[in-house]
Amino acid sequence: MLRKFEGIIALLFVVDLFLTEVALYLSDVARRCIPLGKAIDPTKSFLNPYIYLLVALIWPLLFRALGVYDAKRAPSLREELKMLMVAVPTAVFVFAGSLYLSFRDVSRLLVFYFFILDLAFLSSLRLVVGGILRALQARGRYLSRVLIVGANEMGAAVAGAIDSHLGLGFTWQGFVDDEEAPGLPILGKIADIAEIVTRHNIDEVIIALPSAAYQTVERVVYELQDLPVRIRIVPDFLKLAVLRSSVESLAGIPLIGVHEPVIDGLDRLAKRTFDVVVSAVGLLLAWPLMLLIALAIKLDSPGPVIFKQQRVGENGRLFWMYKFRTMVCGAEEAQSAVAVKREDGKIVYKVRDDPRVTRVGRILRRTSLDELPQLFNVLKGEMSLVGPRPEQVFIVEQYEPWQRRRLTVPPGITGWWQVSGRSDLPMHLNTQYDLFYIRNYSLLLDLKILWKTVGAVIKGKGAY
Length: 464
Description:
Elements: H1 6-33, H2 49-65, H3 77-101, H4 108-138, E1 144-149, H5 153-165, E2 170-176, E3 186-188, H6 193-199, E4 204-207, H7 214-223, E5 230-233, E6 246-250, E7 253-257, H8 265-300, E8 306-312, E9 318-324, H9 335-338, E10 340-341, E11 347-348, H10 359-367, H11 374-380, E12 384-386, E13 391-392, H12 393-396, E14 412-414, H13 427-439, H14 443-459
Parallel strand pairs: 1-2, 1-4, 2-3, 4-5, 12-14
Antiparallel strand pairs: 5-7, 6-7, 8-9, 8-13, 10-11
Helix pairs in contact: 1-2, 1-4, 2-3, 3-4, 8-11
């Protein structure tokens, strides 16, 4: 539930950094204007710009590591201020140590001014944000409107926990249940939940039904899949947690999210920034090679240089994926002729020694250079550098339900299964590797996969 604060947290991240840089500048001014300490030559230039860059590196990293921007914490103003009382001194301490090793001429009094100003600015920002949220709540505007399914003891406990722990920005609208519950506001029957969610502008649904009602829980989850609501389940409905899960705690009550974006908030921002920077640099460096490849394709066989094909992206969105053409023209029409049926009855469409592959195409596939145009897909936001490979529409239509979880993250040029065997692995193992990546996603894992991709390309194992 606390992920509704991710937009505010992202804004805090940006404004915190801006105010910290302002505090650093003002501390430099204060050191010159306040007659304390050793006098400073007024003609001496202000702080080195690299010191501002040092702050821009230290503050976000330490604040993130210390949990200042953790969306899963209760948004209590008192807790926010307590976190700052730890995070700001820690960051200033690391900053002072870095100055000792680099810019030793920076005044210690300046660092003290910086600490006071930064703590004051960031604390004031939290007070302002808290005041805005209270003002919005007084006007009946909430960050999240919650509907509770199950007018029972557990449902009442959830409502009480929302009031006591999430009062700022959150409100529960009522209950949905097939049975009457004296003292609890029942908005309607479970069969009408989709209409109730729409009518009351519900943002989040918490299911607090007994374990005997498993089929009812399953029906509610699937009825709400097409509505823009987040769904939480008070355990023990663990079988549903594999859909797109997160686990949170509300006043000691465990909640399982089953309709969650896998990569969001600051993680998505970091991944997208990394993708744009690396793909842009990659295209700037690779364009001479790409011109040579285009010329080789033209000389080798008739047809276009770029092959584009519709693929399925994140959340089922269709897009055109680009590759250097490695097959003869009309290869797609002859696909069924080379397809192979496995022992389990599944069809494999990518085989060794495919007669449709051209001479240049075989080299491009072996070296994975045919994938270079996908850097344009990355720049457009249709793909990422790292993620599950985007599949063709007819293949996705044959997916079993558990395999569709591959579509919950942006597709990638390379991925965990590519560095673990590539095309030598059967489809069901490919999916298992993709699900491992989704469950364990981090920017560090992306960097690890990119590093391993270099080795996989050099070895050429499984590439055909």
